[in-house]
Every structure is written in C-alpha cells, then in structure tokens.
Amino acid sequence: NSAPVTESRAGMAFPSILKDTQRLLGIGLRKKAVFGLKNIDVYAYGVYADDVDVKKCLAEKHGRHSVSELQQKEELRNHLMENDIRMTVRLQIVYGRLSINSVRSAFEESVGSRLHKFGGYDNKELLQRFTSQFKDEIKLPRGSIIELSRDHDYILHTTIDGKEVGSIQSKLLCRSILDLYIGDESFDHKANEDVESNLASLLHK
Ligand code: DAO
Ligand code: DAO
Ligand code: DAO
Q1: In ligand 3, which atom is closest to the CA atom of 129?
Q2: Which residues pair with 90 in a beta bridge?
C-alpha cells in the first residue's frame, strides 16, 4: 500500500509515505474565488502524520473509550491538531500563475484569521513582517511543492521544492496552519473526512 494517491479533481499525485514514517491521511483542494465570479483551483494538499506518534498519542486517549463513533471521529481530528505529533501538509501548486503578492495576501487573510481565532491575536504588523520575507523572486509554477512540517516541540519548518525557507517555533502558528487544512472550517471537508476515517481504522487495527 505504498503507491501514490491521486487527487482526482486536480490530477495531482501524492506519495503515500513521506519522511519514511509519515503516512498520508487525507487529500484536499484549495480553491479561491477571483473577482467573485470564477473559482480557481490553487493547489491540492495532502495531510500526513507520523505513524508512531499517532498510535502512541491517540491510543492513550481513545483506546478504552466507548463514545459514539461519530463523536470519536471528530475528537480524533482535534487530537491530531492539538498534540505533539509530527505532521506535514504538502501543497502541490495547480494554478501556474500565482504571484507572490497574492500568496502574501492570502496568507495574511487565512492564517491571520486563525491566529485571531486561537490566540486572540490581531497583529497585522507581525504577519506583514513575516510575509515580507516571501521574496519577490520566489517562483511557484504549476507542480511546485511547499511542505509545512510540524516537528516535535511545535517547530514549523517550511520548504519549497525540498529547500528549507524558514522555521519558527510556535504552537499557535502550528495549530493555525493545521486548522486551515483539517479544522472544522477547512478548505476542503473531504480532507477532514479522509483523516477521520483513516485515523479510526489505524486505531482499530
Ligand atoms: O494571482 O491574481 C491571482 C489570483 C490567484 C489568487 C490565489 C490566492 C491563493 C494563494 C495561496 C497560495 C499559497 C501557496
Ligand atoms: O492557502 O490561504 C492559504 C494559506 C497558504 C499558506 C501557505 C504558506 C506558504 C508559505 C511559503 C510561501 C513562500 C513564498
Ligand atoms: O506564537 O507568539 C506566537 C505567535 C506567532 C505568530 C507568528 C506569525 C508569523 C507567521 C509565520 C509563518 C510561517 C510559515
């Protein structure tokens, strides 16, 4: 079961294992409405989590519980986001004409709203200081790969096509980023469902 998995709408293939131990749990599509009329597919994303970390952490919390199946699945997704489990969100760019300015403003909007939600944070200046580091010369053609990896102790590493572009230790930032992809108001609820059912079957194996 190590064959790549293809996101059917955008046709992007995701490896089923990353970094030797991280397993693909779900795939989603990030769309964006432009000028309020057209939806473009911006990137496809895959959500990965370390097998050992998942089993250790989630088995302790859920192994003996007998809550309803549905309730348990939602809880699993929340535990995944909130605990010290190594995870990666891998973005594969579909829309080949992304400008770095639109990446900056999307980042300020989507990540900014989550920092606010979880941290009561409203620091536009801090975010702008951060996004100003997204250099104009960065190019993100179709097929580019951005990985956002949460390591132990809530260190977020960002790589573009395998090259590290930055790392920052912040539990709040890690939580905010994961929320975009598998939170209750994620970009694609299909990813939430995939993650829930894959976690449930990992645990009940
Ligand atoms: O470039 O004018 C444009 C329209 C595209 C807007 C897409 C914004 C979403 C960017 C998020 C990308 C993060 C890698
Ligand atoms: O899709 O709105 C969104 C969130 C995008 C977060 C992506 C982070 C990208 C950080 C690296 C970009 C470097 C140019
Ligand atoms: O934990 O004190 C905190 C808040 C940190 C907020 C940092 C926002 C900067 C965004 C970094 C993006 C990395 C891809």
Answers
A1: 9
A2: 46, 147
For position 115, what pLDDT does the model report? Answer: 93
**Runs of H (alpha helix) within 63-158:** 69-82, 100-119, 124-131
138 backbone dihedrals φ, ψ, rounded to 5°: -65, 130
DSSP code at position 152: G
> Which stretches in the chain have pLDDT values below 70?
1, 62-71, 205
Tokens 């597919």, residue? 41
The highest-level CATH class for domain 5-203 is alpha beta
Closest CA to 52 of 79, 78, 87, 27: 87
Q: ipTM for the complex? A: 0.79
How far, in Å, from the CA of 172 to the mean position of ligand 3?
Answer: 7
Residue 190 CB contacts under 8 Å (≥ 6 apart), including other chains: 26, 27, 28, 29
CB within 8 A of 12, min separation 6: which ones? 6, 44, 92, 94
Specify the pTM: 0.91
CB contact burial 44-77 (16+ within 10 A = b; e otherwise)? bbbbbbbbebbeebbeeebeeeeeeeeebbebbb
Burial pattern 154-185, b for ≥16 Cβ within 10 A else e, equals ebbeebbeeeeeeeeeebebbbbbbbbbbbee
Are the CB atoms for 4 and 168 separated by under 8 Å? no
State the closest ligand 2 atom to the C-alpha of 30, by its place in the atom list counted from 1: 1
